[in-house]
């Protein structure tokens, strides 16, 4: 098992090295930094960005908007998912709303959010509407997939609602949500950045990317892509740690 894991890591590393080499060769052939900058130029910009005074402020504001939008979506998804699982009428009433939320293109949501809200709140609202349907479906399916015999047993033994929620419903929801955690949070993070690109709040990764785009500074845009990728990778590590802590028995 460990040998297979090491082979996978080596293959991923080799693939990354090949990708960087191909990138550098193509960039040198094109000889046009606006279309494709060289690897060394991007990493010089990366170093400059990290050392700049606004770096942590921009990352903090983007992550803060993402966390708020994600937590709001999670809380409302938990409440509505639980209510919908217990009441079929409410479940059917929420179905078209959820379908509408999933069908609206992200850019349309960004435009509408900028019309209805200010430039600081618009990215947050867009993140919420993109993530909420995924979390709601996850919560609802997690509850509906609970063995009906277990539910009937809790009814027969007249288990209190509080104990039923904590001992039966919550573990099912928790497992479902943890499986979605990184993918949904990473999605919210990217959508929030897209909202910042169009909304241009004072601080945010998207604001900086839009500024660099206006100056045709492709090197800096690639550097920010690397930063976003690193943050997404760190989120995956956090999810693995949480999963091992809470579901170590599954190993």
From TrEMBL:
Key words of the record: Cell membrane, Membrane, Transmembrane, Transmembrane helix, Transport
State which residue ranges cross the membrane.
12-30, 67-86, 98-118, 124-147, 168-189, 221-242
Classify the source by domain of life. Answer: Bacteria
Q: How does it sit in the membrane?
A: Multi-pass membrane protein
Q: Could you confirm whether the keyword Cell membrane appears in this record? A: yes
Tell me which InterPro entries the record gives: MetI-like, MetI-like_sf
Where does this chain mainly localize? membrane
Q: Name one GO biological process term.
A: transmembrane transport
One cellular component term (GO) for this entry is:
plasma membrane
Q: Name one Pfam family in it.
A: BPD_transp_1
Q: Where in the cell is it found?
A: Cell membrane
Q: Which residues form the ABC transmembrane type-1 domain?
A: 59-239
Q: Which SUPFAM superfamilies match?
A: MetI-like
Asked whether the keyword Transport is assigned, the reply is yes
Q: Which family does it belong to?
A: Belongs to the binding-protein-dependent transport system permease family.
* Protein name as it appears in the record: NitT/TauT family transport system permease protein
Annotated organism of origin? Clostridium cavendishii DSM 21758
The top of its lineage is: Bacteria, Bacillati, Bacillota, Clostridia, Eubacteriales
């Amino acid at each position: 098992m460990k040998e297979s894991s090491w082979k996978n890591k080596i293959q991923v590393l080799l693939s990354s090295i090949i990708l960087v080499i191909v990138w550098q060769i193509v960039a040198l052939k094109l000889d046009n930094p606006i279309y494709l900058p060289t690897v060394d130029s991007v990493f010089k910009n990366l170093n400059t960005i990290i050392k700049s005074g606004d770096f942590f402020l921009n990352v903090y504001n983007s992550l803060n908007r993402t966390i708020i939008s994600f937590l709001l979506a999670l809380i409302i998804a938990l409440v509505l998912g639980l209510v919908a699982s217990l009441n079929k009428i409410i479940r059917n009433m929420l179905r078209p709303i959820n379908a509408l939320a999933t069908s609206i293109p992200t850019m349309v949501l960004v435009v509408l959010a900028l019309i209805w809200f200010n430039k600081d709140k618009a990215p947050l609202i867009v993140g919420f509407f993109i993530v909420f349907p995924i979390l709601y479906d996850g919560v609802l399916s997690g509850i509906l997939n609970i063995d009906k015999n277990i539910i009937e047993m809790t009814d027969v033994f007249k288990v209190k609602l509080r104990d039923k929620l904590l001992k039966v419903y919550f573990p099912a929801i928790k497992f479902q949500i943890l499986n979605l955690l990184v993918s949904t949070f990473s999605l919210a993070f990217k959508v929030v950045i897209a909202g910042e690109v169009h909304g241009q709040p004072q601080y945010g990764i998207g604001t900086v990317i839009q500024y660099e785009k206006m100056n045709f500074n492709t090197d800096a845009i690639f550097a920010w892509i690397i930063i976003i990728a690193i943050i997404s990778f760190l989120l995956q590590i956090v999810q693995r740690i949480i999963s091992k802590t809470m579901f170590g028995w599954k190993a």
